[in-house]
Amino acid sequence: MSDATFTVTFAGPLVTYQDAGRPGHMRFGVPASGPMDRLAFDAANAALGNVSGTTAIEISLGGLILTSTKGAVTMAITGGDFTIQHQGQKTSGWTILTVQKGERLALSAGKSGSWAYLAFAGQLTAPQWLNSQATHSNSGFGGGALKSGDTVTVTNAAIREDRLGTIPQPEFEDNGPIHVVTGPQDQHFAEGALDLFTSQPFKVSDAYDRMGMRLNGAKLALNSALSIPSEPIVRGSVQVAGDGIPTVLLADHQTTGGYPKIATVISCDTDRLAQFRSGQTLRFKPVSATQAIEITRRYTTAKAAYLAEVSTPRGTLAQRLMRENLIHGCILDEAQATIGSTSTA
Amino acid sequence: MTPHCTAIADHALLVSFGTDFSQGAHDAVLALDRALAADMPPGAIETVPAIVNLLVSFDPLVTDHGQIETHVRARLETARSTQIQGKTHRVPVCYDAPFAPDLTAVATATGLSPEAIINAHLAGQFSVLMYGFAPGYAYLSGVPAPIQVPRKPSPIRDVPAGSVIIAGGQCLITTLTMPTGWSIIGRSPTAILTGDDTRPFLFDVGDTVTFERISADSFARQTAAHV
User: Fold this and answer.
1) Which of A132, B209, B211, B226 is found 20 to 30 A from A296 (Cα to Cα)?
2) What does the alpha-carbon distance between residue A277 and residue A69 come to, in Å, rounded to a whole number?
3) Which candidate from B8, B52, B132 shows the least CB-CB separation from A234?
4) 3-state secondary structure of A194
5) Same domain, A59 and A103
6) Alpha-carbon distance B199 to B203, whole Å?
7) CATH of residue B118
8) Could you give the CA distance from residue A74 to residue A164 in angstroms, rounded to a whole number?
9) How many domains, chain B?
């Protein structure tokens, strides 16, 4: 195996290197960062057979064009519905393909979603900070943002024929309202504000980046003009400034702040929330802390089963054609068992 | 002090010792933080001390709010007898032009001379209250009352890293080029983000900081030494 390199022909804003993040430094003002949509990021790595948390490129709606300058490598694309252009073919996300020297790969915003993930069969070369390549977007610490003219290097670049094709998309995710646990400062809001928050629709505004998502909708009035001593913030905190406008803090959130928080989005729902696009409407549903833990535990079990399924190689083209024939012959289970054992190269 | 515990989503507990700032509440936060550091609840990931409350984040697959709260409450007794003995840091600051663009304005606002502002700042005993806003932004309390000034009405852009800034009773040494509405009274060659992976942040919450005046020449030499 050798290196594969690319020139960044074009990169929109907020196209960054991300690994699983750097938890454990919030007391020093450092949020965990990492992917905005951890499920899609994990799926991309699983589908390639990568170690979980391998650094990938997170692509914003601004898009990314890479031109291969050396070597060949297989890569996975997941996340929002982005348009992929490669070798005259135009497809949409959740796919695995191999890019050869001289070829160009372009990803651009498609119909829905806000973030796409490009994972490689190999290791991306990028700076580390606090043992992580995750980019903290405000400071640029970690792997950093990709800019036009940069070189992207993949070491130990591999071609994985048995992984090519469509990645099954997760179907276990909830499409309903975003779950929140109310508080910790719901008592600082005027009468009716919490009811408005959990009953009215909110529209994602243009002020949406890796730090947070400002929402338009009902104004959530605070009791008098108040200031609370700054206190810890987490990914998912819904803070409300004096103007009554809620902001959901996300991967690159500040770690402390003095705005009252009306609620916190539960951890597993911050992934699907992150894929909402400016202009889209969403709703919040309150759950108890106990229910929140139950939802997260169910989600984690379903996610593990899904990732295990996605990480099974689909086999080479010949094997896949063979399987198609066998499926039509109604001996699916046996065929999958056979393919599973023959393609673990 | 008996704290109030609040569930944060599915993965954290906020332990609050009050709703308004008091030294007692903050000391209780620091003491509990120390006590938990020595004896973390199973499944806990990290603790985040702030002004009057402490966040304990945890893995919801391993534990839950109730178990964390039980562990925290059982450690309050230990926390009460925990000595909060932070380190003391002496941080060099150059108060000369061009590093102190707001010194004159602070002097005018307080009716003191620029030299008196500097001396008051040098006489201050600062405590690391908490981190926040950006990586390595340590909020230091202890700006002497005579030199306290409010935030500016609008922030100034592109304030260089290392700027020593004040607003109200708080002081901060910036780590990034950032906008700020605080008054810039000096520049320090000391990096709060140390670049040393074994000790990446210079201060711990609860440490004490005092400032030491250096000349522009000394600033230049110390800055050059970092490169």
Assistant:
1) A132
2) 33
3) B8
4) helix
5) yes
6) 9
7) 2.40.100.10
8) 8
9) 2
* Residues of chain B found within 8 Å of residue A290, distances taken between Cβ atoms: 64-65
pLDDT interval class at B226 (50, 70, 90): low
Q: What pLDDT digit, counting tens, does each position of B55-89 carry?
A: 999 999 999 999 999 999 999 988 877 777 789 99
Closest CA to A37 of A306, A271, A278, A273: A271
- The SS3 of residue B177 is coil
Query: CB distance A229–B51 less than 8 Å?
Result: yes
Q: Kindly tell me if the per-residue pLDDT of A345 is higher than 70.
A: no
By the 8 A CB rule, do B36 and B192 touch?
no
Residue B53 touches partner A, C-beta closer than 8 Å = yes
| Unique residue bearing structure tokens 């989005």 | A265
**Tokens 């040098």, located at residue:** B122
pLDDT tens profile B130-150: 999 899 999 999 999 999 999
Give how far Cα B120 sits from Cα of A102, B103, B117, Å: 65, 12, 5
Examine the domain organization and report whether B106 and B213 are in the same domain. Answer: yes
Chain A partners within 8 Å of B181 (Cβ): none
Question: How far apart are the C-alpha atoms of A83 and A71, rounded to whole Å?
Answer: 24
User: Cβ contact (<8 Å) for B65 and A293?
Assistant: yes
* Domain of residue B19, CATH code: 3.30.1360.40
Q: Average pLDDT, whole number, for chain B?
A: 94
Residues A72/A99, Cβ–Cβ less than 8 Å: yes
* Co-location of B148 and B185 in the same domain: yes
The angle subtended at Cα B30 by Cα B29 and Cα B35, nearest 5°, is 100
Task: Name the residue with tokens 């057979």.
Answer: A49
- Kindly report the backbone phi and psi dihedral angles of residue B147, in degrees, each rounded to the nearest multiple of 5, phi listed first: -110, 10
Tell me the β-bridge partners of B54: B15, B49
Residues B63 and B155 in one domain: no
Beta-carbon separation of B51 and A266 below 8 A: no
Containing structural domain, residue A221 = 178-300
Classify residue B21 by burial, with Cβ atoms within 10 Å: 0-12, 13-18, 19+: middle
- Tokens 């003191």 appear where? B112
Chain A CB contacts of B139 below 8 Å: 230
Q: Encoding tokens for residue A326?
A: 């066998």
- Cα separation of B126 and A137, whole Å? 30
Q: Within a domain: residue A233?
A: yes
Q: How many CB atoms lie within 10 A of CB A56?
A: 31
Whether A64 and A116 map to the same domain: the answer is yes
| Residue A16 per-residue DSSP state | E
d(CA A46, CA B221): 51
Q: How far apart are the first and last CA of chain A?
A: 15
Checking DSSP bridges between strand A178-182 and strand A284-286, what pairing results, if any? parallel
Range of the domain at B70: 4-80
| Interface confidence (ipTM) of the complex | 0.94
The model's pLDDT over A110-149, given as tens digits with 9 standing for 90+, comes to: 999 999 999 999 999 999 999 999 999 999 999 999 999 9
